[in-house]
Amino acid sequence: MLRGMQPRSAAYSGDELIQLAYEALERPDAWQELLDGIVAATGRTQGLLSVIYPGRSEYSFQVSIGAPPEALREYAERWHGEDIWATRVDPFQVPVGKILLSQDICPDEILEASDYYREFLARYRWHYGAGVRLSGQAHQMAVLTVNGPKESGPLKSHHVDVLNRLLPHLCRAVRVHEAMADLRQQSAAAIHAASRPDDGVALTTSEGRLLYGNAAVSRILEEADGLRYRGTALSACHPEDQEDIQAALREVTEARRGPNPAPIRLSIRRQSGGAPYLVFVQAGTPASTPPMSLALPTALVTLIDPARDSTAVDTAMLRQAYHLSGSEARLAAQLVAGLTPKDAAEASGVAISTIRTQLRSLFAKTGCSRQSEVVKLALRMAGHKS
Q1: pTM above 0.85, yes or no
Q2: What is the CATH classification number for the domain harbouring 174?
Q3: pLDDT per residue over 1-29, tens digit each?
Q4: Are 164 and 282 in the same domain?
Q5: CA distance 235 to 248
Q6: What's the CA gap between 9 and 50, in Å, rounded?
């Protein structure tokens, strides 16, 4: 969300700014109101408040004041790498909440001699300002900047006092905003899990640390028959399978993998020698990332136990309605669980030719012609929306 406008003339009190910082957690338009107040209270004409979660654009926001959209585009496309303030200081080495004044970073004579100033800043009458980092998290970039014309002079001590009083609360609000974003993301995984009650559904970091796992995940990992807990992370018992899981997690969390990539399918062997677990790994967050974002991390991992009957399908009802054999009804349930005919053969301990024969009979009895039609039929009978 971007807005280029002038700050309101009436100044906000320090208490009002603090109240707006917390109010914005429930009323997102208050972020803009807060920035308006900060710019007015510091005697500036331009400001930017940005909270970015790489890969989670639905939770990110950016508000501005006093900067027309074309200026923001020009900065991103032409001047970002030549920003003399940004290039003279490493923002990740600056403590969270520490105010950096523009004149302390770069003296006037150096600033005004730069192309960045002559060709960009001077055009918009931006000269003296300040910036502050609001978050210390590696997967969250949050900054506040204000700026104004040269004739306004540097920020005065009372301007800095306003910021110093507000910043502990603003940094706390940003941390709460991050926690709320994590909870919303976990809720999305929980909704997915509710539609697959017998399958394990987990949300993990790129290293495999569990952020969320449903009851089936806990059961599978506690059994430690091929998959297990390693501290708070999901891991495979067999070293080669663990390498495959780690490679898949890294791949799906890389932004360069492109939009809407297909899930990575893995077969994880069991210690007991039973049918291998089927594991599907896919990106847990949108592939698109906002500008100026950092790399981040999450994967949605689905664990399917082929040896376990799925309660998502009422096989007794299927058998009764379509006169299916036990093996045909079991095959229908396996198709709903996401197994291929080859997977079903391995899980049932029969030849693939036997599964193909059962599939042809299943088609004939149900009037279906494709596996997807069998799945839709089974889910309708189980009360799911097709």
Answers
A1: no
A2: 3.30.450.80
A3: 333 334 444 567 888 999 999 999 888 89
A4: no
A5: 12
A6: 23
